[in-house]
């Protein structure tokens, strides 16, 4: 597994060091621990059975289709996976009652079922969703962004990094620094840091992108949640306790809690509901190979893209809006293969997991499922990036221009994407306004030619 792909070294380090710290914690608590390093999962299971034939192996339900089938074939006994607040059968029951699998409907049902931010029947504040209050661009002028929390390294961390180098495992990206902790204690410290320093303005700047901070007010808890160093229950309890102190806006509290009990649970539920074949969906017939700029920040002059890829190279993470509206948006409007982009996302992000990335990339980001998850594609030109970020100032490209050498590639390719897919989107009522705008373009022939040039240059890493 460790040699089948080229992983971001910080992702590999994080997973391996967290594992070794967990094993040491078990030993310290008096458990007998057997660690086996094998060529693959099946071989490791057989080696354990050969050494301990009297032991029946029980495992938590795996979080990926592939591992589920591997362990099922090996005849292991499953116990329910408690990493999530919504058991898989319960999500399937909800999905079976829905005409459309709308996340907002699921989220409201979660609020009621879990009795979170409720005042009896009505929701706290009289509204289910305060998202309209949470879409501010980064403030102009000086702003005090939260300080980053740094995590110290110990002997286990050093040994893991040495092991990665000694085994010459295929990796990319900058070596681990102090951005990510690898222990349960570090995860709890990160959670406390967020609620004390970033929670209040989380909602307001949830969608903002700025070169002045790589984290904005985001919690940075997803890596810890996704490998089990934190549980959703305790994160929600901490969020509610902090909100109850009275100085956190409802828009921030509701927006954060929605990410945990709504979006996170919804994505995991859809991963199992759609099945393993979902990863192969490609309704837009997108076949372009992964662009060089995704693997090398020097391969583009687009300031917004190079900044995000540099951040990924540095720490294997950017927040959800750059993922969706910069990186995924570019993959969508260039017609990049969903499967190649999915593979890159799985390798590049510290918080990636199969259950996270498959629905997010195939459904939410690249519209490869034909609208099963999101009813319209999340495509945009340079105007959205200009509004929600500060990348355009000093960039080589103008987000207001569609054609010409200095036209923003996002703007050019957005209209070209609509043009290429106008027949496919013609029956989508949510795309009517965009397609009407396309029909009004007087420079469409010139735009098509410029789009061909842009796609060619991007494919060569020269734009």
How would you briefly describe this protein structure?
The chain is mostly helical. It has helices at 9-28, 41-51, 65-73, 88-95, 103-114, 155-166, 184-197, 222-227, 232-243, 250-274, 303-315, 320-333, 338-348, 354-365, 382-388, 409-420, 422-425, 432-439, 444-459, and strands at residues 7-8, 58-60, 77-79, 171-172.
Structure description:
Strands 1-4 form a two-stranded parallel sheet. A two-stranded parallel ribbon has the order 2-3. The longest helix has 25 residues, at 250-274. It has helices at 9-28, 41-51, 65-73, 88-95, 103-114, 155-166, 184-197, 222-227, 232-243, 250-274, 303-315, 320-333, 338-348, 354-365, 382-388, 409-420, 422-425, 432-439, 444-459, and strands at 7-8, 58-60, 77-79, 171-172. It has 19 helices and 4 strands. Helix 7 packs parallel to helix 9, helix 11 (303-315) crosses helix 12 and helix 16 packs across helix 19 (444-459). With 463 residues, the chain is mainly alpha-helical. The protein folds into 3 domains: 7-79, no CATH class; 88-146 and 183-274, Serine Threonine Protein Phosphatase 5, Tetratricopeptide repeat; 292-459, Orthogonal Bundle (DNA Cyclobutane Dipyrimidine Photolyase, subunit A, domain 3). The radius of gyration is 23 Å and the shape is globular. Helix 3 (65-73) links the parallel strand 2 (58-60) and strand 3 (77-79).
């Amino acid at each position: 597994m460790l040699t089948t792909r080229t992983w971001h070294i910080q992702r590999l380090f994080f997973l391996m060091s967290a594992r070794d710290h967990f094993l040491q914690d078990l030993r310290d608590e008096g458990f007998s621990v057997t660690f086996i390093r094998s060529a693959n999962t099946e071989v490791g299971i057989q080696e354990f059975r050969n050494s301990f034939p009297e032991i029946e192996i029980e495992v938590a339900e795996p979080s990926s289709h592939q591992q589920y089938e591997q362990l099922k074939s090996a005849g292991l006994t499953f116990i329910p996976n408690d990493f999530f607040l919504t058991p898989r059968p319960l999500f399937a029951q909800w999905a079976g009652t829905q005409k459309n699998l709308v996340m907002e409907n699921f989220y409201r049902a979660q609020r009621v079922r879990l009795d979170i931010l409720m005042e009896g029947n009505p929701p706290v504040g009289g509204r289910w969703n305060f998202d309209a209050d949470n879409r501010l661009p980064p403030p102009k002028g000086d702003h005090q962004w939260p300080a980053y929390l740094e995590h110290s390294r110990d002997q286990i961390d050093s040994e893991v990094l040495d092991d990665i180098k000694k085994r010459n495992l295929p990796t990319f990206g900058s070596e681990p620094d102090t951005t990510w902790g690898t222990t349960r204690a570090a995860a709890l410290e990160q959670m406390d840091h967020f609620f004390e320093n970033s929670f209040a303005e989380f909602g307001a700047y949830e969608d903002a992108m700025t070169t002045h901070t790589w984290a904005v007010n985001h919690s940075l808890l997803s890596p810890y949640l996704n490998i089990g160093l934190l549980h959703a229950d305790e994160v929600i309890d901490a969020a509610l306790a902090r909100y109850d102190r009275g100085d956190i806006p409802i828009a921030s509290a509701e927006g954060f809690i929605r990410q945990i009990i709504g979006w996170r649970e919804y994505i995991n539920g859809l991963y199992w509901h759609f099945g393993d074949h979902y990863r192969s969906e490609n309704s837009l017939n997108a076949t372009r190979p992964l662009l060089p700029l995704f693997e090398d920040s020097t391969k583009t002059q687009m300031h917004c893209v190079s900044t995000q890829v540099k951040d990924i190279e540095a720490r294997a993470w950017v927040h959800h809006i750059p993922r969706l509206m910069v990186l995924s948006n570019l993959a969508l409007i260039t017609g990049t293969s969903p499967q190649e982009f999915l593979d890159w996302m799985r390798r590049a992000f510290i918080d990636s997991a199969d259950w996270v990335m498959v629905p997010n990339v195939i459904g939410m980001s690249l519209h490869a499922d034909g609208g099963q998850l999101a009813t319209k594609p999340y495509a945009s030109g340079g105007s959205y990036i200009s509004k929600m970020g500060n990348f355009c100032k000093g960039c080589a490209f103008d987000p207001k221009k569609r054609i010409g050498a200095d036209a923003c590639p996002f703007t050019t390719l957005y209209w070209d994407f609509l043009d290429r897919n106008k027949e496919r989107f013609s029956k989508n009522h949510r795309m009517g306004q965009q397609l009407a705008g396309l029909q009004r373009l007087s420079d469409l022939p010139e735009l098509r030619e410029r789009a061909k040039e842009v796609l060619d240059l991007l494919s060569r890493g020269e734009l």
